[in-house]
Structure formats: structure tokens, C-alpha cells
Design a protein that fits this description.
The complex is a heterodimer of chains A (307) and B (508).
Chain A (H helix, E strand, L loop, with lengths): L1 H15 L1 H19 L10 E2 L5 H4 L1 E2 L3 H8 L3 H19 L1 H12 L3 H12 L6 H12 L5 H8 L11 H29 L3 H9 L4 H26 L6 H7 L5 H4 L2 H9 L5 H28 L7
Antiparallel strand pairs in A: 1-2
Helix pairs in contact in A: 4-16, 5-10, 6-10, 7-10, 10-12, 12-16, 15-16
Chain B lengths: L1 H32 L4 H4 L3 E8 L7 H11 L2 E8 L3 H10 L6 E5 L3 H9 L21 H6 L8 E5 L5 E6 H7 L7 H13 L11 E4 L8 H9 L5 E4 L2 E4 L4 H15 L12 H9 L3 E7 L3 H11 L5 E4 L10 E2 L4 E7 L7 H14 L2 H9 L7 E3 L2 E3 L5 H7 L19 E3 L2 H13 L3 E2 L9 H22 L5 H33 L1
Helix pairs in contact in B: 3-14, 5-17, 9-10, 10-17, 17-18
The chains are: A mainly alpha (307), B alpha/beta (508).
């Protein structure tokens, strides 16, 4: 009896909200086709996949590829390189767009503000190849401007490109240079939506600029920051294959080899698709775990989270 | 001046792209309209993927001529050489190969697993049915065999073109002779760096220009001079990798010395081939170790920058074991025939017949030299390649050389009477190299581990070698890395080579 009633209720609800369901349909279809269906391909990480024989006829090997990954002598080094780079990304890159957005917000002269905004966006549209090449030309020992300057000021030249100590700072610096400006967009939009009356009231109470930022702008940005942080953590292992691969060389490999570059050199270059799929699978699992953890944490802190 | 020369090179490539587009548009229009040109489209075609070593693909006039002679239209996807490996990898992984696919010898291990899964036709049994293909060299075919079966037609290359390209005008200015020993080479590099060989009163030169490649850069060739084996040394029935020999260490010490004394471009570990060539072209560096046949193009470009530039070549540097140079197994790549895109045996036979046809006199000479009286002239039945047509040949004919199978031992290809003096010298010295080549003893042997993990394993040693040269590792540290190589699969590779060698010797 109850089940029938339940079903009837469901039917009614579907009928009542049918246009809402129709509207959501394209989104569902998109996720089914482009996100869920391709997961079928994960099967190959349990197979000895050969493109010519295809998924249907390749041999099943079970957890062989995962075993190989976890027993690989370099595995822990690569995993820790990935996590360190990610942590540095969070610590040094993530706050930059927030600070930049608040600084832009304080600029009075509108024309000046717009010019600066445009200028800081531009690097985002350059490919990593170009940015890394610019870095190379500036940092090279054979006549790079930075080393020329160091020598001019009586300092020893530094081999930035071929020294493993300089890889991480160089990476973070280039990420900030390219992405910081672009990252301000969302924060600027959030700042624009703050009620100006709040600032007026604060001024009446005698709050200076820094007090206004601290007590109004930052709290207003709080939820945006947390959502972006969680999303960022979801991309934990997306450190930009292209960028890292371009900076990678024989001298800095012990700190610069990350999961993505390892997949490329060890697996894809040698046609080992199953192995690369297994590593990719592993990477996604880490990402998922971290997102869930971050989301839980955000909720504990009384925030909304992403779901 | 330099800029104008690159600009000049870019214009024809733009033209060719426009004309290519025009051709594409025309053919697609004609196909749609069913106009008289559709008849020409009925000529059977063959799709090929091949690397392009030059700025633009060969002239369409020549391609038409080949189509007329062979009755086959070639539908070639030219992929720039620099990205060819990636492109091939993508094609193999997505199973979107052309009918005929060129695989470089150095990428062969990527293709092997596809071959083993049955993606390509075994062509061995068919070859005897074709007059020219039947005459292909057995030894070379077998070097490219997988599990004893022949899958590919080879593009033939001299076994070693390695040598030194040296600024002759710098040698003359400093009163030096071309080096004949390793000590003399060191001396040349030292004086090229410190004694102002370009005479401009500034210290703005460096001896050696090297790049981020231990094989085709300077290192491997220098290591041959020091007496290092070519990849592997066979001792009785076991195999020793080159980096466990003293000669390899000596080579690293030599390079380390060059680096410490700044006789080499400091960033050589991350220098690309273009940058390396550029150092020579701009007159920054005076010595280049690599393929001697590059000299002609280097010279053309360097002359545009400084007309006084002169180069000379050296191929014999005496080391502890005399003159030696490493060699490749006489082919630089194979054409593989896809089973997916060549569905029937008849189709395969048609395509093999085309390749057989390209070895005939008319087609092979067009592919190698171009069209008579346009690109070359004949004198007493021999080919004369005038210097004036050099640029024309590079832009219209040279890319086709990639498609020529087995040209060196093909009697139908006309001999050369004369061409540019430097290219001539490069050819003569390459022939001289034949007298003292050091072959790789494992070319015919199989190692599954190497096919699967070779890239990774090689990387360990490559990194360690660079780190040693740059002074980040000492000898003990280097040897630790070699141990790491052994543990990561190197030991298995050795065992597999031993087994494979035993099996071959018992069978033979």
C-alpha cells in the first residue's frame, strides 16, 4: 500500500516539475556521454591492452599494473614530488589572486584599474611553451639577462635551469606570473557584489582601509575562497603536464618528475597504455579522497562546501 | 642577414601551404562536381605517413610525375620530424594508422608491441615475387625482423656519418691543423674558446656546441673515439652495457673537463638541435660533432650570416684503440603495412608492387635527384648537382628521400659525378668510416624488457651521465645509478640478450 502511494507521489512530482527536469536533461546527457561513458575505458588498466586487438579482445591481467606501480623504486619519490609541488601551489599561488583582487579593488582611478587588470590577464593567454622559452632565454648561463645582472653586481652566476634547488621556485613563479591575473576575475566579481552600505557604515564607525578589508571584504569573500579551494584540491594532481615537462631535464628530474610526466615518459612513450591508465586511475582516486576530505573539513568549519 | 635568410625560408613554405590548400579545394570541388578531373582521382592511391625533415613537402609537380609513372597517387601525411615520434605513438595508440607507416629505427621498440599483436602484415614471404624487392639485402631485412619475421621495407643509410664539423677559417687564423687525436681536439677546443678565433678582440666564442642528446649529440661519437663499445659489448656469451666500461667513464671525464673549463656551451644539457646549429651558424661555436652530411646546410646558413665562414670535416680521431666510430645497422627506418587499412592480400600486393616500382630507374632517380635539367644534369651517365640548384633541390626534392627504400645498393640509382664540395667530402668521409665502424652487438637480439621499459631505463643512465659531466655526481654516485639501472630491469635485459644470443647461435 505504502509503496503504491509512494510511487504515485513520485509521479505527481515528476509531472509538476517536468519542465525543470527537461531543463536539467542536457546537463545529465553531457555528464553521461562525456564523463561517465569514457570511464568504461578504465577497464584497460586491468588488461594487457593492445590497440589493434581492442578492449574486447585484450588479455585480462588483474591488478598487475597496480602492483608494478606500487613496487616501482621511484614511485614514492614521484608521488612526493607531486604532492610537494601541489602543496607549494596552494601555499604560494592560491593566495596571490585574492590579494591582487583586493589591491585592484582599492584602486580609485577607474581607467588605471582597467589597464592593470587587462595587463595582468594577458599572460594567461600565452602557452607554456612560450613562457618556458622566455624563462630559458632570461635564465640561461650562456648570456641570459638575469645572470648577466648577477655578474654585473658582483655575484656568482646561478645555473637556474640545471639545478634541482631552483626547479620548484621557478615553477611556482611561472605559475603565478601566468595565472594570478586570470584568477582575480571571480574574486573581483564577488567583491563587486558586496553592499556598499557596509563600507559606508564601517567608515562612519571610523574604520580605516585595512579595517574595511579585514572586516568586510575578506568575510564576504570567505565562501568563494573556500569553494575555489576545494575545487583546486580536486585538481590536486593537475599541475600542468606541459609546464612541468618543458622544465624537466636530466639535472632536476629527482624533484621535477611528477605523476603526469612519469605517465608520459615511462608508459605512453613506450606504448604501455594499460600501465598509464592504471596510473591515471590511481591519480583520480587520490583526487577524489582529497576533495571529500576538504569538503568535510569545510562543513565542519561551518561553510557550505561544494555538495 | 640571418633574419632575411629565415624569412626567405618561410616564404616558400607559405606558398606551398597555399598551393596545397588550392589543390585540396580543387580536388574536393572536382570530386563533388564529377568533372573530368574525377577520372584522375580514379587512379588508385596509397596513404602514407612519413617524417618531413625540411621546411616544406616536395613539389607537387614531382609528385604528379611519380603518379604518372607509377599509376598510383600518393596520399602522404608529412609530419615534421621533430614531432614524428609522438605522432606515430598517437596513431598506434588510437589505431588510426595509414596504410603505410614509416617507423624510425630509434622508435622501433614502440611499434614492436603493435607488430606482435598482429597490427601489421608480415611481408617476408611476398618479397621474392617482385624483381627489385627480391634483391633487398637479407642482412638488413633481418636486422629489422621481429621474432624472426620480416615486416618492413627499409630506408637505407650509410652505417656511420658521424664526424666533426670544424670552422676551417678559425683553424687557419690560429695556425692550427685539423685535429687527429683526442689531445689535439682538446687543444682546438681550448684555443677556439680563449684565443679569439674570430679576431674581433672579444671573448665571445666557445669551442664545442653540443645539445641535449647523448646519442646524436657529441657524446656518443666522442665515446667511440675513447674506445667505448656501441651500446653493448659482448664478452664471450654475456653482455656488458657501455656505461660499465672504463672508456665511457673516460669520455665523461673529458666532457666534464670541457664543461669545467667552459670549452662547451654551458647549457648543453638543455640545448635543442636548432639552438645548437644556431651556435655554429652565428659563429659562436667552432666545432660540431654529429652527422657530417649536415655540413652543407650549415654552411649555406652560416654563409648568409658571415660570408667568410668555411667548414672542414674530420672523421678520424685517434684514441687508445685507434680510429673507431659507432654505426647504425644500415637502415634508419622501416615502412610497415597496416592490416587494418590494407584489408586484403591483393591490396597489399598492389602496394608492394608500388614500392617495387619506385626502385626502377625512372622513379628512383626522380625521388633522389629530381627532374633532369631542372634539378640536375647528366654528364657521361652520371649525375651533376650544380650548386645553383641547391636551394631548389632542398625545397622541392630532398623531402622525398625519406620515401626511398634501399637506395644505396640499388643499381638503378645513378651515381653522382659531382655536387657541392662539402657534401662530396661528407660522402667520402662517411665511406671512409665504413672501415672502422663499431656495430652494436645486440641489433639482432630481442629483449622484451628493453622493448617495454627501455625508455625508462635509458633515462636513468642518461640523467646520471649528465649529472656526472656537470659535476653533480662523483664516480661512486654514478655507479650507484648504474646499480639502480640494474635493479630496475637492466639485469633482466642482460639476461634476455644472453638467452636470445644463445638461441640464435644454437639455431644458426
Amino acid at each position: 500500500m505504502q509503496a503504491i502511494a509512494h510511487r504515485r507521489e513520485l509521479k505527481q512530482r515528476l509531472k509538476r516539475n517536468k519542465w525543470l527536469y527537461v531543463m536539467i536533461l542536457p546537463g545529465i546527457v553531457y555528464f553521461l556521454i562525456f564523463k561517465y561513458a569514457p570511464m568504461y575505458g578504465l577497464i584497460i588498466s586491468f588488461q594487457d591492452f593492445k590497440p589493434y586487438t581492442g578492449i574486447a579482445h585484450s588479455d585480462w591481467v588483474g591488478l598487475e599494473h597496480f602492483k608494478r606501480l606500487f613496487t616501482e623504486p621511484d614511485f614514492w619519490r614521484i608521488l612526493s614530488n607531486t604532492l610537494i609541488l601541489f602543496a607549494m601551489n596552494l601555499a604560494f599561488f592560491f593566495p596571490v589572486p585574492i590579494i591582487l583582487a583586493m589591491m585592484l579593488n582599492e584602486v580609485r582611478l577607474s581607467a588605471f584599474k582597467r589597464t592593470i587588470q587587462t595587463i595582468v590577464y594577458i599572460p594567461h593567454f600565452m602557452s607554456w611553451v612560450i613562457i618556458v622559452s622566455i624563462g630559458y632565454v632570461m635564465l640561461t648561463m650562456d648570456g641570459g639577462i638575469i645572470n648577466e645582472l648577477l655578474v654585473y653586481f658582483g655575484h656568482e652566476p646561478i645555473n637556474f635551469l640545471l639545478n634541482s634547488h631552483w626547479f620548484r621556485p621557478m615553477y611556482i613563479y611561472q605559475v603565478i606570473w601566468r595565472e594570478a591575473g586570470w584568477g582575480t576575475i571571480i574574486y573581483l566579481a564577488a567583491i563587486a557584489s558586496i553592499d556598499p552600505q557596509l563600507y559606508e557604515a564601517a567608515r562612519m564607525d571610523g574604520a580605516g582601509r585595512f579595517r574595511q578589508i579585514w572586516h568586510i571584504t575578506l568575510p564576504a569573500l570567505r565562501s568563494v575562497i573556500i569553494v575555489l579551494l576545494i575545487l583546486k584540491i580536486g585538481d590536486v594532481l593537475e599541475l600542468g603536464f606541459e609546464h612541468v615537462y618543458l622544465l624537466l631535464n636530466s639535472m632536476n628530474r629527482d624533484v621535477a618528475e611528477i605523476i603526469d610526466t612519469y605517465v608520459y615518459t615511462a608508459a605512453l612513450k613506450q606504448g604501455q597504455f594499460s600501465y598509464s591508465a592504471a596510473i591515471g586511475f590511481f591519480k583520480s582516486v587520490i583526487g577524489l579522497v582529497l576533495v571529500i576530505a576538504a569538503n568535510k573539513l569545510a562543513k565542519k568549519m561551518g561553510e557550505e562546501g561544494v555538495y | 642577414m640571418n633574419r632575411s635568410s629565415t624569412g626567405f625560408r618561410r616564404i616558400p613554405s607559405l606558398f606551398s601551404m597555399v598551393s596545397l590548400l588550392a589543390v585540396l579545394l580543387l580536388t574536393s570541388c572536382s570530386r563533388d562536381a564529377g568533372s573530368p578531373r574525377a577520372a584522375a582521382a580514379d587512379v588508385p592511391s596509397i596513404s602514407i605517413m612519413a617524417p618531413l625533415h625540411f621546411p616544406n613537402p616536395p613539389d607537387s609537380g614531382i609528385m604528379d610525375e611519380i603518379a604518372r609513372l607509377t599509376g598510383t597517387r600518393l596520399d602522404i601525411e608529412w609530419v615534421p620530424d621533430g614531432i614524428y615520434t609522438d605522432k606515430l605513438n598517437t596513431a598506434l595508440s588510437t589505431n588510426t594508422v595509414k596504410q603505410v607507416n614509416f617507423v624510425k629505427r630509434t622508435d622501433y621498440m614502440i611499434a614492436k608491441s603493435a607488430i606482435r599483436s598482429g597490427a601489421f602484415w608480415e611481408i617476408g614471404p611476398y618479397l621474392q615475387d617482385y624483381p627489385n624487392l627480391a634483391r633487398l639485402k637479407k642482412e638488413i631485412l633481418e636486422q629489422g625482423a621481429v621474432d624472426g619475421k620480416i615486416y618492413g621495407l627499409y630506408t637505407e643509410r650509410p652505417s656511420s656519418r658521424q664526424g666533426l664539423i670544424i670552422r676551417k677559417d678559425w683553424l687557419d687564423r690560429l695556425g692550427l691543423q685539423p685535429p687527429g687525436t683526442l689531445d689535439e681536439l682538446y687543444e682546438v677546443l681550448r684555443r677556439f674558446t680563449w684565443d679569439d678565433p674570430d679576431g674581433n678582440g672579444r671573448k665571445d666564442t666557445v669551442g664545442l656546441a653540443d645539445r641535449n642528446d647523448l646519442v646524436y649529440g657529441a657524446f656518443k661519437t666522442l665515446s667511440s673515439y675513447f674506445g667505448t663499445p656501441n651500446n653493448w659489448e659482448r664478452r664471450e656469451s654475456t653482455f656488458v652495457p657501455e656505461f660499465e666500461t672504463q672508456a665511457y667513464i673516460d669520455t665523461m671525464d673529458f666532457m666534464r673537463k670541457l664543461f669545467r673549463e667552459e670549452l662547451i656551451n654551458t647549457d648543453f644539457a638543455i640545448t635543442s638541435k636548432e639552438q645548437q646549429r644556431d651556435l655554429l651558424i652565428r659563429g659562436v661555436a667552432g666545432v660540431y660533432v654529429g652527422s657530417m652530411t649536415d655540413v652543407q646546410r650549415l654552411l649555406e646558413q652560416a654563409k648568409a650570416y658571415n660570408p667568410k665562414t668555411e667548414f672542414t670535416l674530420v672523421n678520424r680521431i685517434m684514441g687508445p684503440l685507434g680510429s673507431r666510430v659507432w654505426s647504425i645497422p644500415n637502415y634508419n627506418g622501416l615502412f610497415l603495412f597496416s592490416r587494418k587499412t590494407i584489408p586484403t592480400e591483393d591490396e597489399l600486393k598492389r602496394i608492394l608492387a608500388f614500392f617495387d616500382r619506385t626502385m626502377e630507374k625512372d622513379v628512383s632517380n626522380i625521388m633522389k635527384y629530381g627532374i633532369e635539367n631542372v634539378h640536375y644534369t647528366l654528364s657521361n651517365g652520371k649525375v651533376v648537382l650544380p650548386e645553383e640548384t641547391y636551394a631548389l633541390r632542398v625545397s622541392e626534392v630532398s623531402p622525398l628521400y625519406t620515401l626511398m627504400i634501399a637506395d644505396i645498393n640499388n643499381p638503378n640509382v645513378l651515381p653522382i659525378e659531382s655536387h657541392e664540395p662539402m657534401a662530396d667530402l661528407a660522402d667520402r668521409l662517411s665511406n671512409d668510416n665504413e672501415k672502422f665502424t663499431v656495430p652494436d652487438p645486440t641489433v639482432n637480439l630481442d629483449s622484451k624488457t628493453f622493448d617495454e621499459r627501455g625508455v625508462e631505463l635509458t633515462k636513468i643512465v642518461t640523467d646520471a651521465t649528465y649529472q656526472y659531466i656537470l659535476g653533480f655526481l662523483d664516480l661512486a654516485g654514478f655507479q650507484d645509478q648504474v646499480k639502480r639501472w640494474e635493479n630496475a630491469g637492466g639485469r633482466q635485459v642482460i639476461q634476455e640478450y644472453e638467452t636470445s644470443y644463445r638461441n640464435q647461435n644454437e639455431a644458426g
